[in-house]
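[audit] Reproducing an earlier prediction to check determinism. Same input, same settings, fresh worker. If the tokens differ from the archived copy the diff job will pick it up downstream; this log only records the rerun itself.
[audit] input (443 residues):
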Amino acid sequence: MKPDLTLPFHTIGSLKSRIGWFINMRWIVTFIMLASIPVSQKIFQFQIAYFKIYNLISLLLCLNIGYFFLYKYFKFKNFKQELIFTEIQVIFDLVIISFLVHYIGGITNPFFFFYIIPITISSILFQKKLPYFNALVAICLLSCWSFLEYFNKVEIYYIGAGKPSFALVSTSLIAFLFLVIATTYVIDDFISKYRSIKSMMDQKNILLEKTMHENDKMFRFTAHELKSPLTTLRSILGVVELLFTQKNSREKIQDMLKRAEKRSDQILDMVNDMIDLTHYKQGKKEISLKYVKYMDWFKNRIDSFVVLANNENITLNFKPTKSREEIILDIPSIEKVVNNLISNAIRYTPAGGEVEITPFIKKNQFGFSVKDTGIGISQEDQEKIFSDFFRSKNAKQKSQLGTGLGLSLVKQIVNKYNGNIVVESELNKGSKFTVTIPKIEYL
């Protein structure tokens, strides 16, 4: 599930438990209030509205029972409904506290700081402007009651020496204003920073899970892909061992050894590709930059494929430009890209076909294209060919040899140099791969 940053200490799935915690805390506060009334009445003998306070506590209990049943049995359709439900509780708590503060002596009673409790909860649970809105509601409620009491517009209850002066009322309200705003700001700032850290941790966790999933996938594919050539290799060795006991088996043994050699090369290629792919993905591959005459270097690479192409009866058509420009290359990396694409083109082109290689240099870019008349790639598979271990069905039918890592490695190298690789293909009509890489300006 994608983490939600609205709530810093829990996910969407656990918001309901936070609502339950809020309701349970209200039970505790209610019973503390009930226990405090007899103490203030018998011991301190405060002249406050005890009957009205009992009615207010009864109302709070009824509301909390309603909250409890909604929390327990009502299925919220979405996260927004849960937040609205929580905000309603905060607003009702502020209103009830405003009446309670009025009944126990108004601003002359230090317990008017009860407002801080829902304000703190609001600052923790919500973000953006909502905590400040709730703080403004608290300030307005206390200010209204204080001035109504001062101007004798409501019944007055004092626990002190008498009616407070206007200066005392104003000073207390200003102090409360600064306290509420400062509390909201400090908590909101802390929670915002916590949310940022949590966001980063969530993203790292998602990346870690994705990496672990990819590693598991790679392990499974590796085990599967290695099993086939190893099984074949073991069978070949068994047959060779048997042939040694027979006469006139020299040619058969040589054939078996050649097959074993091919399978061994396949395993070695797969292991090397996996090592290279891991290094490129982790950014650990060493870079070896040199100035080279690009067209001359490319011709040398083509020459190494002439024998392979002739053996497969493939026409190798090299189309260089006349450019003598020197460019900076990471030779080992670009060589892997060139080798993979040309060897694939030869491997998957039937005898009598053609492979055309066209290197190019532009103003700020260089690259090459490899075009063949081979088996082609379906539109569906074109989106998958750069995935680890992927080999299309027709590719497997054409050649059993292949690691399924070559194009993935090519993609990683091209991406490393902020380049681009484009494939154009049609089944049974051939493919064209075009690689374009920005020039490196200096060593």
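[audit] rerun output stored. Observation attached for the diff report: Residues 123 and 186 are 9 Å apart (CA to CA).
[audit] end
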